[in-house]
């Protein structure tokens, strides 16, 4: 039997999707194009690119609600579960962005936070992300607060 190569999705992304059966990486959340349905009722995710997938059917022409396509089914490279399909060709110009993208069944994917997302500390409430600095806490109403360094009174 040939040697099995498993690719990994870059850890720097916030979250990624893995095969829910064997846990191997499939796609980064950054490459998610669209969330919707396949075959009317199965929740599905469209990814611009994915790893560890191999074709598992002959190419076929199919007419879907958005037009006519040439598709090929894809399966997880490791556990061989059929997980969705790849768009090889889209007939309509406005659907061309789907070419080479993969539509995968959401129920067969597990969303995983990356190591970096887990390591990042939670920001305090008054931290302003826009400036990267701590904002001054709101000053209470009333007399102005005393100067920060008082002189000793003899
Ligand atoms: Zn798998």
Automatic annotation (TrEMBL):
Region named Disordered: 126-154
Bias type Pro residues, positions: 137-154
Stretches assigned to coiled coil: none
Stretches assigned to the Yippee domain: 15-113
Highest taxon above the source species: Eukaryota
InterPro entries given in the database record: Yippee, Yippee_fam
Transmembrane portions of the chain: none
Name by which UniProt lists this protein: Yippee-like 5
Origin species: Micractinium conductrix
Organism phylogeny: Eukaryota, Viridiplantae, Chlorophyta, core chlorophytes, Trebouxiophyceae
């Amino acid at each position: 039997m040939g040697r099995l190569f498993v690719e990994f999705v870059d850890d720097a992304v916030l979250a990624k999707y893995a095969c829910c059966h064997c846990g191997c990486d499939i796609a980064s959340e950054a490459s998610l194009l669209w969330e919707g349905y396949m075959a009317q009722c199965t929740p599905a995710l469209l990814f611009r690119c994915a790893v560890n997938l191999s074709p598992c059917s002959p190419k076929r022409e199919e007419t879907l609600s958005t037009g006519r396509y040439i598709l090929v089914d894809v399966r997880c490279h490791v556990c061989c579960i059929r997980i969705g399909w790849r768009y090889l060709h889209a007939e309509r110009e406005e659907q061309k962005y789907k070419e080479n993208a993969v539509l995968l069944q959401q129920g067969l994917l597990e969303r995983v936070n990356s190591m970096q997302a887990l390591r990042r500390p939670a920001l305090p409430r008054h931290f302003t992300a826009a400036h990267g600095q701590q904002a001054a806490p709101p000053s209470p109403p009333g007399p102005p607060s005393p100067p920060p360094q008082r002189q000793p009174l003899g």
